[in-house]
């Protein structure tokens, strides 16, 4: 149960001053809270023996008032310090998770669904933060405060009465331990189910157009209803165990009260304790209710926190398939990219998706990459971005092996426009500035002209300040592609990769973009993959991929003279045009 505190020891060690102060202040506040019951018993005994004077009464009232003020100030300090720590932990864990996500490769995101990652980044982090705040509070109250009350009851009133009233405690410890184990198991299942439901919601929202197009609204609603029912059942299973804590505690506390009142009255009759002592004892017994409840809450919170921390740590322990080398080689200038006997296969597959014997790309070259669907064009680009491991052979950038380069430097050289454009739920200006932080409107309009987007921006209601919506839902396919192109152009990278990124624009727009591209990137390297061969006819060198291998290569004219797949495909597309 207390494993979770050990797993969070790194945080408590870093903020030991904060937690030392908070726990010390909490103990002092608890100790001060034990004084008023003694004052009450003291006053009752003076009343009973008719020895209460005005001076004694005023003194008691002044002490009582002072205690209230001091207790309030100290309680504020420990509350602010302790729960402030839990907020810091949540912030730290969320930052660690986000940094971890940004380092992960596609293999990781193929293994873990978005909804599940969101559940771990929200609900699980809340449970962990609760452990570092409320969990520490209940730990102190269930141990130190409880023993302080018991000590006051035993040393200042009667040990016999104290032990008798605490007989239900061992029973409570056994029952709470069983409840805690059940909570841990059921809460883990409930969180897993919540992650699956999150993922279903995300997929439904993203695919709402397809759902409507195929009239699948009822079926999707039914699937979601089944998932929510599953989440409901699993959370109800947690709630059923959770609901047992309070009544169990009330029964045991009631038993303690019964013993305390019955046996205490007997001791008063025997003059073993005074009436004031009995009243004080019952007040202490009432104060003991919270520490007893705190035992149950402690088990509940720690088990939930432990389950959530295990789920989050499982993500944080996942090592990225691709990492920067320990001692990277720094390259000042990118003058060429060379492939020599390079093969590549995706993880968990045995066949090679890429098998290139030789390919040379010089600085300033424009390389066209064409081939049938599934020929390996996108895979080739993912190799250059080093998104996957298992690259065999010699793939070099300026004679330096790709695995010796720092990932940040490699990806800084490259501007990438993928097949599926990613639009952020921000304005068009912010989406383009993603390529160059702080880019001016003048620079943005210039790259929009290169991407042939100026006419479109004039028609949008707020121009550059138009929000594109979730995943660019307010833009057409062609508009999204051109915003993505503008974002890549403004970065002005050493290597620009266009992965079939003009498929949604018409031929005339494509021709204009290509013309701008040729003019702007005279001394920069550009790689263009396309199904429409008109996008690569201007390239310095064109390669035709078939099953990951180069089946044809040369300039447009050379490939036309060769009379292979390229010529056949080009002529067919010209006829269709």
Describe this structure in words.
This protein is α/β, with parallel strands linked by helices. The chain has two domains: 3-316, ABC transporter type 1, transmembrane domain (ABC transporter transmembrane region fold, Up-down Bundle), CATH 1.20.1560.10; 365-576, P-loop containing nucleotide triphosphate hydrolases (Rossmann fold), CATH 3.40.50.300. The chain contains 23 helices and ten strands. It has helices spanning 3-7, 9-14, 16-33, 35-48, 54-103, 106-111, 114-121, 123-156, 159-165, 168-206, 208-213, 217-269, 275-287, 289-316, 377-384, 407-413, 428-433, 441-450, 454-459, 477-491, 507-520, 556-562, 565-576; strands at 336-344, 354-362, 366-371, 391-397, 400-401, 414-417, 495-499, 525-529, 541-546, 549-554. Helix 3 (16-33) packs across helix 8 (123-156) and helix 22 (556-562) crosses helix 23. The longest helix has 53 residues, at 217-269. The protein is elongated and about 120 Å long. The relative contact order is 0.08. The mean pLDDT is 87.
Structural domain tally? 2
Put simply, the count of helices is 23
Portion in strands: 5-15%
Global morphology: elongated
CATH topology of the largest domain: ABC transporter transmembrane region fold
**Rg computed from alpha carbons, rounded to a whole number of angstroms:** 35 Å
> Could you give me the name of the CATH homologous superfamily of the largest domain?
ABC transporter type 1, transmembrane domain
Query: Which CATH class of the largest domain applies here?
Result: Mainly Alpha
Protein name: ATP-binding cassette subfamily B protein
Pfam family, one: ABC_membrane
Organism: Pseudogracilibacillus auburnensis
Domain ABC transmembrane type-1: 21-304
